[in-house]
């Protein structure tokens, strides 16, 4: 992407830090509930694509710090729940597919007393908006720290350890749970926008995937037997990227080619790393949820999935092709309403997706065999029911 000034570079970085890192066709049948014996607990990790409330307006990434205000949450919850969307996220549709008693509560909302109750009620969500794969200190040492959302994926692992202590959970509980690792890493690449010479993209890719691999292995060492890991979506199809990139930097789905190539390269390296983890841990199931392929399928044929607006932000300002203004984003005093039909839009606020898009992606992950999830989600459930990791 090209920016005119250092100031705009820094603004892009701050905005991109809120990316957290994108189903079945619109006519597909509703999700069938999994057998109650499949998974009674889910532990979720990631960034704003998975965060169900660990971030609030006062702690969110700059220019996307209005998540506690309307119209966030308007479609499903009819109020803000500090999710970066108009409604449910993919992890919420996972909770519904597994017939959990409730959506996953955010870790930071739990007291010591409620930790055990939450764990018994379906699990906990540790994802936090703006989170990176690489530890925050790395960026601080390179003078690129904004101290907005300094948590990394390893911060979330420390939170998980703290939760296990508070809830006094056993290794058997950990082994019976499903671990959902939402997309993570897009925020790391944001730093390369203003520091390509200092922190080359290739270095960030190597370090980010290594940290994700270390995180997943940490879960396995703590007794996890069933893990689902998401790749990056088409980050070049987000409204923010479309707005700031050069007009000639486009691919065959009219998205930002250079940014999508970056996500594709990241996912290839992540897949290779997961393959090595499977070899080292044959007693565990490590599934890969292909966000990139799912997002690409929608962008190639948006109408087939019910979308008429693949690029414009539903909740934004400025009109035009993208309805996105860096200085007047969703939930800010200037933008307290959204489009009339969010279900027709892929993009919600310029960086995050609508509930409708998350529902489509969830359908692809959970009900499309091994086309977008490998091994297939149904196979993972069957193996859990049989007690065979």
Automatic annotation (TrEMBL):
Signal sequence interval, chain numbering: 1-27
SUPFAM superfamilies documented for this protein: SGNH hydrolase
Record GO terms (molecular function): acetylesterase activity
Pfam families hit by this protein: Lipase_GDSL
GO biological process, one term: fatty acid metabolic process
Keywords, alphabetical: Glycoprotein, Hydrolase, Signal
Xref: InterPro entries: GDSL, SGNH_hydro_sf, SGNH_plant_lipase-like
Family: Belongs to the 'GDSL' lipolytic enzyme family.
PANTHER family: LIPASE_HYDROLASE FAMILY PROTEIN, PUTATIVE, EXPRESSED-RELATED (PTHR22835:SF557), ZINC FINGER FYVE DOMAIN CONTAINING PROTEIN (PTHR22835)
Official protein name in the record: GDSL esterase/lipase
């Amino acid at each position: 992407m090209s920016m005119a000034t250092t100031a705009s570079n820094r603004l892009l970085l701050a905005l991109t830090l809120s990316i957290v890192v994108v189903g079945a066709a619109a006519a597909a049948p509703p999700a069938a509930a999994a057998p109650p014996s499949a998974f009674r607990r889910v532990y979720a990790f990631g960034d704003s694509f998975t965060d169900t409330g660990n971030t609030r307006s006062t702690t969110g990434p700059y220019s996307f710090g209005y998540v506690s205000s309307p119209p966030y949450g308007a479609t499903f919850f009819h109020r803000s729940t500090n999710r970066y969307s108009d409604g449910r996220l993919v992890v919420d549709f996972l909770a519904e597919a597994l017939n959990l008693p409730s959506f996953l509560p955010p870790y930071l909302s739990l007291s010591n007393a409620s930790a055990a109750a939450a764990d018994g009620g379906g699990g906990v969500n540790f994802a936090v908006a703006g989170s990176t794969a690489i530890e925050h200190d790395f960026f601080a040492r390179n003078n690129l720290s904004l101290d907005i959302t300094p948590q990394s994926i390893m911060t979330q692992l420390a939170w998980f350890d703290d939760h296990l202590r508070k809830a006094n959970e056993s290794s058997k509980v950990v082994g019976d749970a499903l671990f959902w690792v939402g997309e993570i890493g897009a925020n790391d690449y944001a730093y390369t926008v203003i520091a390509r010479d200092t922190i080359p993209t290739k270095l960030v890719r190597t370090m980010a995937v290594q940290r994700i691999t270390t995180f997943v292995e940490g879960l396995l060492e703590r007794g996890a037997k069933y893990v689902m890991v998401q790749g990056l979506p088409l980050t070049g199809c987000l409204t923010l990227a479309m707005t700031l990139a050069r007009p000639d930097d486009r691919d065959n789905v009219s998205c930002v080619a250079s940014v999508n190539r970056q996500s594709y390269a990241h996912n290839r390296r992540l897949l290779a790393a997961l393959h090595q983890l499977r070899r080292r841990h044959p007693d565990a199931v490590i599934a890969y949820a292909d966000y990139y392929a799912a997002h690409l399928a929608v962008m190639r044929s948006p109408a087939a999935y019910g979308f008429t607006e693949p690029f414009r932000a539903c909740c934004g300002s400025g009109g035009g092709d993208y309805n996105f203004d860096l200085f007047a984003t969703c939930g800010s005093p200037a933008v307290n309403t959204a489009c009339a039909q969010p279900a027709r839009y892929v993009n919600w606020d310029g960086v995050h997706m609508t509930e409708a898009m998350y529902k489509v992606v969830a359908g692809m992950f959970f009900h499309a065999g091994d086309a977008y999830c490998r091994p297939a989600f149904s196979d993972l459930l069957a193996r859990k029911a049989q007690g065979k990791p």
